[in-house]
Each structure stands twice: as structure tokens, then as C-alpha cells.
Write a structure and sequence with these properties.
Layout lengths: L2 E3 L6 E3 L1 E3 L11 H13 L4 E3 L8 H10 L8 E6 L14 H15 L4 E6 L8 H13 L3 E7 L3 H14 L4 E5 L13 H7 L3 E4 L38 H16 L4 H10 L4 E6 L4 H8 L8 H11 L1
Parallel strand pairs: 3-10, 4-5, 5-6, 6-7, 7-8, 8-9, 9-10
Antiparallel strand pairs: 1-2
Length: about 325
């Protein structure tokens, strides 16, 4: 496993990190979830990600329990705030009330005194940005949070947050967590350049496009049993399961085979080619998936291979 700085901070995180969205505390049995976390730790992954809203806190409990056997200083843990956690008018968003209450609730579920990274899971147009940044700054000063970040914010929103923090002498965001993969590349136009300008690293989620870039889904064939697309509510994988995408996947398989890589390893190495990416966040329901994906760390793709991939994707 190779490691990169989280943006321009001094914190080093594994190129491949392990998340828990749609997996831990959900349709993956706790035994498999813990085994996957253990395998990740064994293979050098030091960066683990969860969120309060994942199965209303159940994922945090699973992740916290699994990590409790390891020295706290040996891993980096991230969780998030924004999503709906109750039925009241203040049970969601980025108000000071919700941020502080949910930070304390997350720490309790995780069984920890602090989290390394705390994300604003989405942008909240109803909460004043200064209120949000000040609440996060207070958590940093209290030692409950070490670094702060955002997820799926626009380039304009990121810029505004940086300028506000600098003007008010508040703690700066150091990381953004966007969706990024071979089939979904919106961050390349504005988010990535703006983030690099301000020293903000990207920890990208869905790097394998909800499993489409593993090659498990094939054009003209049914949905594999036990796959994410077989879970109720995720049949088309957010619009990714199209004939056009599956044809691209078929062509990418050929490139991967020539390099003696699996398709998922090629897809992860392609993401890690970006200087502004600090880590690619994978999901895993079985330890074997972790073993395969970590092999992408350190893989360098030549200019010729990147050009061939670009032709396929365009």
C-alpha cells in the first residue's frame, strides 16, 4: 500500500480507503463487514469512512466496533453530518445545533473520543455558511475533530467556504468527497482545479461506478444474484446500467487484460493518476474484494494506455 497526503495537510492516508455506504449495518452481515475491515487493516489501508446517516447510525456502530481492537493512532476515521436523523425540524442540515448534537452522537456510536475527519455530507442552503464553519471550528478546538471536509460541494461553494474561513480565521476545509469514476467525471471541469488551488484533496466515492466497473454486469444478461443492483431500490444503479456504459466496460476489460490487471484495478489506477486525488474509497462486502482492490495502489498507467482509455470513454 502506498500513502498520500490528505490535500496539503501533513496527514497521510492510504491510496485505497474503505467505506461503509450501502454495506455495513445494512445488507452485509456484521461478520463479513468486520472481516472486510480486518483484511483492509492487514493490507495497509489506514483510512476508513462512514456517516451518521448510513442506516441511521448502524454503520458507525459496526465500524467503531471493528476498529476498536486496533491502536487509535494507527488509522484515520471519517464520518459525516447533514442527513436526516429524526423527524424534527432540526434533525437534519448544517445548523450549529444539528452539527454539535450529531458530532457527539457519532462519537458515542463509534465509541471514540474524536474523529480524524468530519465531513459536511452535502451543502445546506438553509444554514448560513459562517454558522456551519464556526460550529466545525469549535469541534476542532475542542479536540473532537482533527480535520474538516465537505462532500459533493460545487467549486463555487468550496471557494466561498475557503474565503470565509480565511477572513474569519477559522479552520479550513482540507478535503472534498465527490463522486468520481471513469463514467462520471464532472469534477474534472471545475471542482478539481479549484480544490488543487486551495490545497484541498479529493477522497472519491463510487470509484467503481456502483460495481459497473468490476465487469460483473454484462450487456444482454440478467442482474447477478447478490450484487448491489439486486438490492431493492438500486435496480439501475442510479442510471449507470446502460448499454452504452456496458459497451465501454467491455472494451476496458481488454485494456485491463493486456496489463494483467482486473477491470476494477484498472479503474482505481486510472483515478489515482490524478494528482489532486488523495484516496479512492471502495466498498466491500467480502474480504476478497478488498484484497483485489488494494493491488491498484502504486500501479502507474502509461501515457499510451491513458490515451487508449480516453478514446473508449469519449
Amino acid at each position: 500500500m502506498e500513502y498520500r497526503r490528505l490535500g496539503k495537510t501533513g496527514l497521510k492516508v492510504s491510496e485505497i480507503s474503505l467505506g461503509s455506504w450501502l454495506t455495513y449495518g445494512g445488507y452485509v452481515e456484521e461478520q463479513n463487514a468486520e472481516a472486510s475491515i480486518d483484511k483492509a487493516y492487514e493490507l495497509g489501508i489506514n483510512f476508513f469512512d462512514t456517516a451518521n446517516v448510513y442506516i441511521r447510525g448502524e454503520a458507525e456502530k459496526v465500524v467503531g466496533k471493528a476498529l476498536s481492537k486496533y491502536p487509535r493512532e494507527s488509522y484515520v476515521l471519517a464520518t459525516k453530518v447533514f442527513g436526516k436523523m429524526g423527524e424534527g425540524p432540526n434533525d437534519k442540515g448544517l445548523s450549529r445545533k444539528h452539527i454539535i448534537e450529531q458530532a457527539n452522537a457519532s462519537l458515542k456510536r463509534l465509541g471514540m473520543d474524536y474523529v480524524d475527519l468530519y465531513y459536511c455530507h452535502r451543502y445546506d442552503p438553509e444554514a448560513p455558511l459562517e454558522e456551519t464553519i464556526r460550529a466545525l471550528d469549535d469541534l476542532v478546538r475542542q479536540g473532537k475533530v482533527l480535520y474538516i471536509g465537505v462532500s459533493e460541494w460545487t467549486a463555487e461553494q468550496i471557494t466561498e467556504a475557503v474565503h470565509l474561513a480565511d477572513k474569519k480565521l477559522l479552520d479550513r476545509i482540507v478535503v472534498n468527497q465527490p463522486k468520481y469514476n471513469m463514467l462520471q467525471r464532472y469534477i474534472e471541469a471545475e471542482v478539481l482545479p479549484v480544490s488543487m488551488k486551495h490545497g484541498i484533496g479529493q477522497v472519491v466515492f463510487s470509484p467503481l461506478a456502483q460495481g459497473v466497473l468490476t465487469g460483473k454486469y454484462k450487456k444482454g444478461e440478467g442482474i447477478p444474484a447478490g450484487s448491489r443492483a439486486s438490492v431493492e431500490g438500486y435496480a439501475n444503479l442510479f442510471g449507470l446500467l446502460t448499454d452504452e456504459n456496458l459497451e465501454k466496460v467491455n472494451q476496458l476489460k481488454g485494456v485491463a487484460a493486456e496489463l494483467d490487471l482486473s477491470l476494477s484495478q484498472l479503474a482505481l489506477a486510472w483515478i489515482l493518476r490524478q494528482e489532486g486525488v488523495s484516496s479512492a474509497l471502495i466498498g466491500a462486502s467480502r474480504p476478497e474484494q478488498v484484497e483485489e482492490n488494494v493491488k491498484a495502489s502504486g500501479v502507474k498507467l502509461s501515457a499510451d494506455v491513458l490515451a487508449r482509455i480516453e478514446v473508449i470513454l469519449r
